[in-house]
Amino acid sequence: MSTTRHLINRQRRLAAAPPTRERPAARPRPGTPGTAPPVAVEEPVEAPAPDEPERADAVDEPVRAPRRTRPRRATVLTAALALLTVLLGGLAAWSASRASALHDSVATGNTALTDTARTSEVKGTIAQDVNAVFSYDYADTARTDSAAKRVLTGRAVQQYATMLAQVRAQAPAQKLVLTTTVTDTGVESLTADRARLLVFADQRNTATAKSATPASTTYAAAMFAVDAVRQDGTWKIAAIDTFG
Questions:
Q1: Hey, what domains does the chain have and what are their CATH numbers?
Q2: pTM higher than 0.85 for the full model?
Q3: What secondary structure, in 3-state letters, does the chain show?
Q4: Fewer CB within 10 Å, N- or C-terminus of the chain?
C-alpha cells in the first residue's frame, strides 16, 4: 500500500518539475548489435595557434613587382620580320623600277609592239623575198638568180648559195621545180632599220624527168629565222638562221 502511494507521489513531482535538457547519448561503437543509430555531435573548434615570434635576424625585403619581359625567341622573331619587311620593300621597289625601265626600253626600241604599219610592211616584204629566192625552176634559173641579187645582202648571200647548191646540182638532170610558199611570219624585234622575223613555209619539190616516172612530188615544212635590214628604202635579208 505504501509502495503504491510512493510511486504516485513520485509521478506527481516529476510532472510538476520543469523539463530538463537531455544529454546526448554516448556514441555507440559501429557494428554493435542492438545499439541505437549514431547521433551527430559537433567537433570542437580548435583555437588558432599563437603567432610565431619574429626572428631577430629577420630583415624586411622590399616587394618587387614581376618584370614583364618578352621571351628571347619572340624578340628574335620580331627583328627577323622587321628585316624581311625592309628587304621585301626594297625588292618591290627595285622590281618596279626595273620593270618600268624594261617597258620603256621595249616600247621605245622595239616598235614591233607599237608600230603596226611598219610591222606589217616588213612581214609582207620578207615573205615575198623568201618565196622568190627559195623557189627554183630548172627551166628558168635566171629568175631565181635575179631575185637573190635583189633581196640578199651581207652574210645571207653566202648562206643562200650553200643552202641551194644541192638543188642547183640536181635540177638539170631531174628537172626539178621547187616551190616555196610562206604560210606565216612573226616579227620578234623591229627598230628603225633592222628586224628579226620567224618564218614558216611549205615547200613542194617536183621531179619531172623521164627517169622519174610518174613524176614524183615531195612536200616539206620549213621554219627558220631571218635578220633583215632596211637599205635603199626597202627591206633585205641580211642573215638566215636555220637553228643548227
A1: 112-241 (3.10.450.50)
A2: no
A3: CHHHHHHHHHHHHHHHCCCCCCCCCCCCCCCCCCCCCCCCCCCCCCCCCCCCCCCCCCCCCCCCCCCCCCCHHHHHHHHHHHHHHHHHHHHHHHHHHHHHHHHHHHHHHCHHHCCHHHHHHHHHHHHHHHHHHCCEECCCHHHHHHHHHHHECCCHHHHHHHHHHHHHHHHHHHCEEEEEEEEEEEEEEECCCEEEEEEEEEEEEEECCCCCCCCEEEEEEEEEEEEEEEECCEEEEEEEECCC
A4: C
Predicted confidence (pLDDT) per residue in 29-83, tens digit: 554 444 444 544 455 545 555 555 455 444 455 556 555 555 555 555 565 555 5
